């Protein structure tokens, strides 16, 4: 039987993890925390905060190794790597759980589903959020927390304000059937690319535009090649911090309790900095002078909402009507 490179790396990591398990008394427990964005994004900074807290609170009994910018694995590889034990911790965007068969997480991709952060937190910090994380356990994954990035903007080499502006524009998206339907509803041509491939694809003209948060756009220098940006806040980008369930359950109970507390504190910090990071990045994009920034007026916003409303009908059977309606009820309270 031939093994691909990921399987070989995972096997080596599993053997190393087994050796580490037997050597806890002699040395620190190592947690490899892999993610795909830059260190100075909200996710990147929060990962470093968790590292510092975990190592401090356990007095060195745990060592957290953070690998940003897809240094270890790209979007399509990282969940498999976690399940195989090649890494212990990730913070993937919520859309990435759908290929595992947990499609309920795609509800977070529905356009305009969260009017603001307060409505979002009713979901992620309440019963619905806890139930969603529990759905990952049969996949060998334990969900620890929801982390923020923020609301997304659109960018391209032409203005994207009226619906006709989207006609035929090649737009990069992450792998999500909801985001595919969203772009098609606007008249664009969606193209799935890993996050690490997005900025080069924009630079080389493989795609003409994308959607993302300002902090991701700025840290990946997308604004240097995107001439126009539309402040639309049409969608949300968030993450779930997850850990290999077998690894987590195998930790000493006291260590697990300390790490859970470190994660709670890192999560509070992450939510505090997320909006600030996006605001600061937007201002840096503005000052760079390479990108014209457009803000939708109420009439234009209403036009976008009308165009995107059919996405709910197209996707609710896929996501699960019960989940979609539960979120809509929760945010309406």
From TrEMBL:
One of its GO terms (cellular component) is outer membrane-bounded periplasmic space. The keyword Signal applies. It holds the Pfam family DctP. Residues 1-25 form the signal peptide. InterPro entries: DctP_fam (IPR018389), TRAP_DctP (IPR004682), TRAP_DctP_sf (IPR038404). Belongs to the bacterial solute-binding protein 7 family. This is C4-dicarboxylate-binding protein DctP. The lineage of its organism: Bacteria, Pseudomonadati, Pseudomonadota, Betaproteobacteria, Burkholderiales.
């Amino acid at each position: 039987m031939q093994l691909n490179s990921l399987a070989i790396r995972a096997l080596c990591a599993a053997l190393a993890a087994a050796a580490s398990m037997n050597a806890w008394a002699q040395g620190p427990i190592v947690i490899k925390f892999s993610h795909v964005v830059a260190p100075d994004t909200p996710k990147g900074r929060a990962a470093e905060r968790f590292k510092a807290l975990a190592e401090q609170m356990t007095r060195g009994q745990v060592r957290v190794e953070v690998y940003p910018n897809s240094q270890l694995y790209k979007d399509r590889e990282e969940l498999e790597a976690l399940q195989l034990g090649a890494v212990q911790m990730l913070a993937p965007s919520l859309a990435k759980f759908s290929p595992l068969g947990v499609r309920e997480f795609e509800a977070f991709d529905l356009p305009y589903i969260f009017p603001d952060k307060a409505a979002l937190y009713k979901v992620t910090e309440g019963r619905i959020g806890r139930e969603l994380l529990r759905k990952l356990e049969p996949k060998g994954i334990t969900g620890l927390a929801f982390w923020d990035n923020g609301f997304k903007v659109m960018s391209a080499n032409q203005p994207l304000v009226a619906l006709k502006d989207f006609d035929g524009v090649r737009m990069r998206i992450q792998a999500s059937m909801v985001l595919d339907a969203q772009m098609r509803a606007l008249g664009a041509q969606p193209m799935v690319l890993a996050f690490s491939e997005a900025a080069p694809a924009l630079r080389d003209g493989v795609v003409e535009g994308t959607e993302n948060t300002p902090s991701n756009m700025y840290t990946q220098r997308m604004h240097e090649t995107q001439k126009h940006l539309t402040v639309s806040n049409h969608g949300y980008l968030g993450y779930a911090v997850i850990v290999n369930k077998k690894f987590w359950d195998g930790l000493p109970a006291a260590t697990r309790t300390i790490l859970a507390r470190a994660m709670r504190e890192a999560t509070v910090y992450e939510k505090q900095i997320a909006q600030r990071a996006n605001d600061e990045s937007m201002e840096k994009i503005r000052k760079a002078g390479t990108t014209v920034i457009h803000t939708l007026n109420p009439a234009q916003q209403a036009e976008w909402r009308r165009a995107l409303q059919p996405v709910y009908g197209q996707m609710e059977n896929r996501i699960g009507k019960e989940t979609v309606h539960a979120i809509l009820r929760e945010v309406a309270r």
